[in-house]
Specification:
Layout: E1 2-6, H1 10-21, E2 27-31, H2 35-45, E3 48-49, H3 53-57, E4 63-66, H4 73-82, E5 86-90, H5 97-108, E6 114-117, H6 124-135, E7 141-149, H7 165-168, H8 171-181, E8 185-193, H9 199-202, E9 208-215, E10 220-226, E11 234-241, E12 245-248, H10 274-294, H11 303-322, E13 326-327, H12 328-331
Parallel strand pairs: 1-2, 1-4, 2-3, 4-5, 5-6, 7-10
Antiparallel strand pairs: 7-11, 8-9, 8-13, 9-10, 11-12
Helix pairs in contact: 1-10, 4-5, 5-11, 6-8, 8-11
The structure holds nicotinamide-adenine-dinucleotide (NAD).
Nicotinamide-adenine-dinucleotide binds near residues 12, 34, 91 and 274.
């Protein structure tokens, strides 16, 4: 199959390489608002190049991968749906809730499959955790601890079109908590701070944050994250149940060092970026997308899933700004 890809920045260039390696993909065609960037990437990776998005959409592609800046997602999804092209779009769907809801209505009112990129759903650890929660072997889950700690911040230019820390970063934790537990979030209390470079605060954003979520079965989930974790890219989840407790992402590469005498675990090299941490998950995710394109698989993460994760992120942003508990149904 022939796959189009819009946006060849950090994740787009990475997805282009992954797509090229998939047996189901014969050709990858790339475009970017910065045509020179797309042309250079195409040359470097041995891909086809389209000078703009309209030419990409009419170049006979079977599926489209959107990895452009978040601010462009809604418009690009709408263009792909209008052209009837099966689409994968990086999270989040849009910068605000109203636009996300418009995209959900558009996609659900069409018959075009749209898959949203929450790659943790394709990580073996999170899948095993979900299976153990669903089987009941952990008993009832009383607490979840989830974290997303980036080793270093993105460039300043990324921040104004990112949607802010909760919508850009911990939105992954919100999605995976829904996926692992099968429950919905009822209320949140969130806070954040800008203690690193000043540009976060200048755009009204934070570089570290924490949130307490209450789920509809009274499970408590704490979510924390930072853009400054020089120890390494550290993404984990603990699921604590009445009969057993498990950890996702706790292995030799975990970016933690024990201060206990004689304890050498974890002793391996910590992950540096999300590409290292989730390499196999991205391959599995895009393989799943090719199956959606081929019509052999249902969309594994829908725009409605993305809307639910976004609502949690939005509620956290409101909670942080107003310093109060936010109830998802009443307040958002
Ligand atoms: N799932 C993940 O783990 C993950 C990780 C990183 C980023 N992301 C998401 O991927 C998206 C891109 O992030 P990034 O870090 O690669 O950003 P980036 O700034 O490195 O790259 C964005 C690219 O999009 C292009 N672009 C912007 N507007 C465009 C438009 N209208 N049409 C075509 N191209 C356009 C830019 O020129 C740039 O090349 C964001 O939505 C981000 O949330 C997801």
């Amino acid at each position: 199959m022939r796959i189009g890809l819009v946006g060849v920045g950090r994740i787009g260039a990475f997805h282009a390489t992954t797509l090229k390696s998939l047996p189901a993909v014969e050709q990858v065609v790339v475009a970017d608002a910065d045509a020179t960037r797309a042309e250079l990437t195409a040359k470097e990776l041995g891909l086809e190049f389209a000078p703009d998005v309209p030419s990409l959409l009419t170049s006979g592609i079977d599926g489209l991968v959107i990895a452009a800046a978040t601010s462009a997602h809604a418009e690009l999804i709408a263009a792909a749906v209008a052209a009837g092209i099966t689409t994968f779009c990086e999270k989040p769907v849009a910068l605000d809730l109203a636009e996300t809801q418009r995209v959900v209505e558009l996609v659900e009112g069409s018959d075009v499959p749209v898959h949203i990129g929450f790659q943790r759903r394709f990580d073996a650890g999170y899948q095993a955790a979900a299976a153990q929660v669903r089987s009941g072997e952990l008993g009832f889950v009383h607490h979840i601890r989830a974290n997303t700690n980036d080793a270093f911040p993105p460039p300043a230019g990324y921040i104004p079109t990112s949607g802010g820390f909760f919508r850009d970063c911990t939105v992954h934790d919100f999605d995976i908590i829904r996926y692992v537990t099968g429950r919905e979030v009822v209320s949140v209390y969130a806070t954040g701070a800008n203690r690193g470079e000043a540009f976060f605060g200048e755009y009204g954003d934070v570089d570290a944050a924490a949130a307490l979520l209450t789920l509809d079965d009274s499970t408590f989930a704490t979510v924390s994250g930072t853009r400054y974790n020089a120890a390494g890219h550290d993404v984990r989840m603990e699921v604590l149940g009445s009969l057993g407790s498990i950890a996702v992402g706790l292995d030799e590469h975990t970016a933690l060092r024990s201060v206990e005498a004689g304890v050498t675990f974890p002793g391996g090299e910590p992950h540096a970026t999300f590409m290292d941490r989730f390499g196999p998950a991205y391959v599995a995710e895009l393989t799943a997308f090719t199956e959606v394109v081929a019509g052999t698989r249902e969309v594994p993460c829908t725009v409605r899933d993305a809307l639910q994760a976004f609502r949690i992120a939005d509620a956290c942003e409101l909670s942080r700004k107003e310093n109060r508990v936010v109830f998802l149904d009443a307040d958002t």
